[in-house]
Amino acid sequence: MSDFSGMEDLLQDFLTEASELLSDVDNKLVELEKRPDDKNLLNVIFRGFHTIKGGAGFLNVDALVNLCHRTENLFDKLRNGELKLTPELMDAILAATGVVRDMFGSLSQSRPPAPADAALLTQLDDALEGRLPSAVAAAPAPAPASAPVAVQASAPVAAPTNHGNEPDWVMLHAAITGAPMPAAKPASAPVPAAPAAAPVPVVSAAPLPAAPVSVPAVTTPAAPAMGLKPAAPAPASKPQPAAQQLAAQETTIRIDTNRLDQVLNLSGEIGLTKNRLTTLRTDILNGKTDSTTLKALDEAIGQLDLLVSDLQNAVMKTRMQPIGRLFQKYPRLARDLARQLGKDVELVISGEETELDKTMLEDLNDPLVHLVRNAVDHGVETIEERIAAGKPPKSIVQLSATQVGDHILIEIVDDGKGMRADFLRRKAVEKGLIDLETANSLDDKQALQLVFMPGFSTKDQISSVSGRGVGMDVVKTNIQKLNGRIDIHSVVGEGTRFAISLPLTLAILPVLVVKVCDQPFGVPLAMVREIIPIRSEQVQEVSGRATIVVRDEILSVRSLARLLGWQETQTPQFGVLMQSGENSFILAIDSFIGRDDVVIKPLQNIRPRGVAGATLSGDGSVVLVLDMEDLLEDNQSDQSAIKTSQFLEMLSNKA
């Protein structure tokens, strides 16, 4: 077993590059299953695995070298035409890559990984000799992240001998430190059997194709092929260090040097403008207030405003990462789930180059996992059902991302059976989520939104894949936390489209600044459609609620003062026409100040109802940025949340 003391930086470099390579190998393997005769693809896969093996050999991680060597030999025989790629052989290969990822999890905790399960090694040896059984069970569902790695004695290992293909970071380390390159080990040298120990928790390393951006990984270990049994669950041992390690990785990001050069240049320009302002300030303090001096001051301030705006945009670009780094996980996920369910599904990805804020990529992972799994499990039909319906046997699920203005549009589209609104209403009533009267009042578009209700599921039986009614609830909740929205469009017999609209970044939020009771508030501009004047003769009561008709659309009027728990001091003069999900309403306000781009500061150790954070206005006063989704909820069960009025009173007292 290797001792990684003093090699933490080198180990982290290896995990960064190897995780990137392994994610690319996984995606290439899914492509290879569609084009088994593509020699170029096989060569790319072979080189990726060889590089991983070389790095593992340099670190003396014998268990990883052993597993990679066997798998690499399979790729070599495939590209030489000595073996033919079959679904059963692919199951065995993907099982090996899944265990390799599990070993990365152990290495991320600076622990030598346990040797691969003996049954997996035997399976790979049988595949190398052409003895792989022709009938292999479909790949089971991905194991939970806490599934332990079985500890088994290792078979003899053949260490890497080709030193001309070592990864770049290995050669760089050797050049800087004077460390020798790894020497070849005798092929017959056995790896000592690992002592029995408590299974270590599996922590899937996040794929990082171009930068060490820590995106929460989708744990999709490949299902073992025939003859492999999953290890019995056991308590995870000391998970806290792993959590701390992953948290530390999330603070790093790789940035294009051109973007950093732009930031540096703008910083220099701002420094020059600051010097100019300092000189003008000295002149004015000395009594020089002629028109030429004041004009120069105005020009310098205008220049500073322009430079700060450019610098802000340049800094924000350093946080932007291609969404492809997130998308690359899902072809393997879709393939494994389709194999388990006996379906033929192809995941088609487009728009991988679209950029999104790094922090949003991390939070977007779970919703997309649920939506891709939902499309494969619920959306598309089985092969027999598709043939009976006159459709091609293969289902197509499309995952795409495009930038539309200042928003990102992510779509998950399937060509399956679609969703029937009447069926969703009936299921919601059967599960007690809504009453019959409410169900009958919903139109088809509103009925589709029932899938996001907690506890809603169309499955009568719970399986390892679905049926508990928690997945889609998580999707909507997480999207709303990102100040986004999700819409559904479905046609029975043709398929379903989920459309997610997200702001480019959460660091800077465009808001409409409004005033109520002489207090300014920021309302997310993404929800604002227009501002209209409110006249008393326009307001009518319908079912006990104030409403206004706007272009033949009856909209309810919600007083912002009352939502905040205040008494109205004057009749609202303006209404902000807002869109929240599928619902439109008018937010009644006293006045409005205008549009602004604000940097939200979270409120520490305090949670006013309906407040997302705070910012400062130009005159230095506090402006609360509202969380409209929270504010519009009728029933607030959290008794710990204080009222916004109480929070503002606290601020006044401190001032």
UniProtKB/TrEMBL annotation:
Modified residues (Phosphohistidine): H50
Listed InterPro entries: Bact_Chemotaxis_CheA, CheA-like_dim, CheA-like_homodim_sf, CheW-like_dom_sf, CheW-lke_dom, HATPase_C_sf, HATPase_dom, His_kinase_dom
Record bears the keyword Kinase: yes
Annotated ranges, domain CheW-like: 508-637
SMART domains xref list: CheW, H-kinase_dim, HATPase_c, HPT
Keywords: Kinase, Phosphoprotein, Transferase, Two-component regulatory system
Histidine kinase domain boundaries: 265-506
Designated name of the protein: histidine kinase
Catalytic reactions on record: ATP + protein L-histidine = ADP + protein N-phospho-L-histidine
HPt domain boundaries: 3-107
PROSITE patterns assigned to the protein according to its UniProt record, in alphabetical order: CHEW, HIS_KIN, HPT
PANTHER family noted in UniProt: CHEMOTAXIS PROTEIN CHEA, SENSOR HISTIDINE KINASE CHEA
Enzyme Commission number: 2.7.13.3
Pfam name, any one: HATPase_c
The organism's place on the tree of life at top rank: Bacteria
